[in-house]
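Final report, closing paragraph on structural work. Over the funding period we assembled a curated collection of sequence-structure pairs, and we close with a single example.
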Amino acid sequence: MELSLLENVIVELTEKISGARITKIHQPAADLFIFRLWNGSENLKLLLSAAPGNSRLHLTEQNFANPFTPPRFCQLLRSRISRILTISQLNHDRIVQFECAGPKGLCRLLVELTGRSSNLVLVAEDGRIIDALKRVQSNQQRLIAAGQTYVLPERPQILEMQRKGPENAPPEEVSVSLAVEKLYAQSHGLKREKDVRGLIEDSLRKAQKKLQRRLKNIEQEQANQQGYEQCKQRGELILAN
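Its predicted structure, as stored:
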């Protein structure tokens, strides 16, 4: 998710869901979470995606099918957070912090929208990791595991190039989240179209090769048949003489 786009989403979320009560948390897919919220005046759905190449964060109007049994991290979130207090961006990066309250006190949900390494990390008030969607224990500089002190990922310099300025932000009367959702839906549609086109082209290539082999076999059979007829004619001539 581009940095400038994320910053606009954070502004909208701060206005709409600060102090909102979490009524339900679902995990429709391995890297996808839907928070159902009540902000005192309306029900909202917050989408959190840590999918590599498709990580994003915004309000959504889509409906998702949910598994009968919530996965491990989803169960943890349900047990630890019941209200979103504040939303903030950390280190001028694609890291969004949700300060939350729950039955066991305050905690923070860190949403790292960092491409292939995107992750959701639940951190206790003392800065230690409670757990994460994706546990990382092979990186000595930044371990993501229960009991470890949470450390922000290093901010890449290329992020400044992603800033496209306020002139590219949606008009104020348009929901930023709705604009983001349409953008990702279009890009997903284009990717699906490209994938389907690739499958069709691959099928056509395979069919073409198969037809070429059949044609070659037919030509060989015809050549063999022609040779047989020539031999037959020669044999008949020899017998006739």
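The domain at 3-169 is CATH 2.30.310.10 (ibrinogen binding protein from staphylococcus aureus fold). Helices lie at 3-17, 72-80, 176-240. We thank the funder for supporting this effort.
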